[in-house]
């Protein structure tokens, strides 16, 4: 009976079981501490690899393998400060996935000695991390359609625009690794666009309207061809050399398309117009950064607003046909317009009805986007926000600037996006 009572007694079994379980419990806690330390080191290593890759991308394509490895190691060590990391190694691998594009892969390895891992037979934790930077994947044709109307003289807008545009050009110039891979056109606009008096002999300029409005009558009291000829007098058109370079909207629907002008087809040609308020002359795509900056400096506020012609002419400078003969579309070429305005549409060739002109602007936006032109829009204090936001390729490419001083930040954001340097992984 005593023996049976002893065999049923379970009180003494707890201590041995606890002793047996304490070892895996301690091992789990120790492993958790060690791997937590290792995770923090790996996170720091990842950040340092990202920073190293972005820094090296500026010069990597011009370095041989030895110099690239040395620069990668030097820069990584300057930003990675984790003394518990042992056997640290950084390996950069530069490849050229396509013509004009580059990919830099940064591979990092290290070990971290365990503090408690020996309890379970683990003396160190091995770490790996990698980062990829790609750049130069796309060439760029950029058209800047910039409002030069009279209202840009207020609130410091024109001065702020010039500063922002200069900085954008500097960013793009620095991002251009090969001459010609980034080209920029500048289109100041008001009611008209000034295509430059140097084009006085161009076969894509239609003089019909201009000659009717500019000239002399054999009877000096008549100042236009209609009154002159209807009264039996002789109208003599002015010499084309007196033209100020301005053109107004083409016939509809070519006013919202990038149709190539055809000699003899008046509807496709640009109509010479002696605008009283003629903005600074435009500049087709160019890699002459000095001339581009000078064109920005030449801009002067004047006249009313016709966003349509500014956008249309910007698109025309990106098109392959006459009159500007831009590079042909290609998979490695982005064609982009930055459209900036500070006011509502107020006048075009046909009307001063804002809603009617807005409809033309909307069509031009839709047509350009359908032709794979990417559009950024910038509204400076005033203007039709809905129209401009709808014109942008997507909402993130619309900027609503409330103060002229914010223009530089908006253009800086656009410039960095266009420079096409990004962390891909």
Structure, described:
The chain is α/β, with parallel strands linked by helices and 425 residues long. It is built from 11 helices and 16 strands. Strands 12-5-4-13-14-15 form a 6-stranded mixed beta sheet, with helices on both faces. A 4-stranded antiparallel beta sheet has the order 1-2-3-16, covered by helices on one side. Strands 6-10-11-7 form a 4-stranded mixed beta sheet. Strand 14, helix 10 and strand 15 form a beta-alpha-beta unit.
List the helices and strands and how they pair.
Elements: H1 2-8, H2 14-56, H3 65-79, E1 85-95, E2 102-113, E3 124-135, E4 139-147, H4 157-175, E5 182-189, E6 193-194, E7 205-206, H5 208-213, E8 215-217, H6 225-230, E9 235-237, E10 246-248, E11 270-272, E12 283-286, H7 289-297, H8 307-317, E13 333-341, H9 354-370, E14 374-380, H10 385-391, E15 398-401, H11 407-419, E16 422-423
Parallel strand pairs: 4-5, 4-13, 7-11, 13-14, 14-15
Antiparallel strand pairs: 1-2, 2-3, 3-16, 5-12, 6-10, 8-9, 10-11
């Amino acid at each position: 009976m005593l023996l049976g009572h002893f065999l049923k007694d379970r009180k003494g079994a707890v201590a041995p079981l606890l002793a047996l379980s304490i070892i895996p419990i301690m091992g789990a806690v120790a492993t958790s501490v060690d791997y937590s330390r290792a995770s923090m080191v790996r996170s720091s290593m990842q950040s340092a690899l990202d920073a190293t890759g972005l820094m090296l991308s500026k010069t990597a394509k011009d370095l041989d393998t030895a110099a690239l490895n040395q620069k990668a190691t030097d820069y990584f060590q300057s930003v990675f400060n984790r003394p518990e990391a042992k056997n640290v190694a950084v390996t950069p691998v530069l490849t050229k996935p396509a013509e004009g594009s580059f990919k830099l892969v940064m591979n990092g390895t290290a070990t971290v000695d365990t503090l408690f891992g020996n309890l379970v037979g683990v003396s160190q934790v091995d770490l790996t991390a990698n980062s990829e930077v790609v750049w130069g994947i796309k060439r760029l044709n950029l058209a800047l359609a910039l409002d030069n109307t009279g209202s840009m003289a207020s609130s410091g807008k024109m001065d702020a625009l010039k500063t922002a545009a200069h900085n954008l050009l500097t960013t793009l110039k620095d991002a251009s690794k090969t001459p010609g891979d980034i080209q920029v056109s500048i289109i100041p606009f008001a009611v008209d666009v000034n295509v430059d008096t140097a084009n006085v002999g161009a076969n894509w300029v239609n003089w019909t309207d201009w000659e009717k409005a500019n000239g002399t009558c054999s009877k000096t009291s008549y100042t236009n061809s209609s009154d002159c000829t209807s009264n039996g007098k002789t109208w003599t058109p002015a010499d084309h050399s007196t033209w100020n370079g301005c053109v107004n909207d083409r016939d509809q629907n070519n006013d919202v398309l990038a149709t190539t002008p055809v000699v003899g087809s008046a509807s496709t040609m640009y109509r010479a117009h002696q605008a009283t308020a003629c903005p600074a002359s435009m500049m087709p795509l160019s890699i002459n950064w000095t001339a581009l900056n000078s064109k920005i400096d030449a801009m002067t506020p004047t006249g009313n607003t016709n966003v349509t012609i500014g956008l249309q002419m910007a698109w025309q400078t990106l098109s392959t046909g006459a009159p500007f003969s831009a590079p042909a579309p290609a998979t490695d070429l982005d064609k982009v317009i930055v459209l900036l305005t500070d006011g509502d549409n107020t006048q075009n060739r046909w009307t001063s009805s804002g809603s009617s002109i807005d409809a033309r602007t909307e069509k031009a936006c839709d047509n350009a986007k359908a032709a794979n032109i990417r559009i950024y829009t910038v509204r400076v204090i005033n203007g039709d926000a809905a129209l401009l936001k709808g014109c942008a390729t997507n909402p993130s490419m619309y900027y609503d600037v409330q103060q002229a001083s914010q223009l530089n930040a908006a253009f800086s954001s656009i410039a960095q996006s266009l420079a096409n340097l990004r962390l891909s992984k």
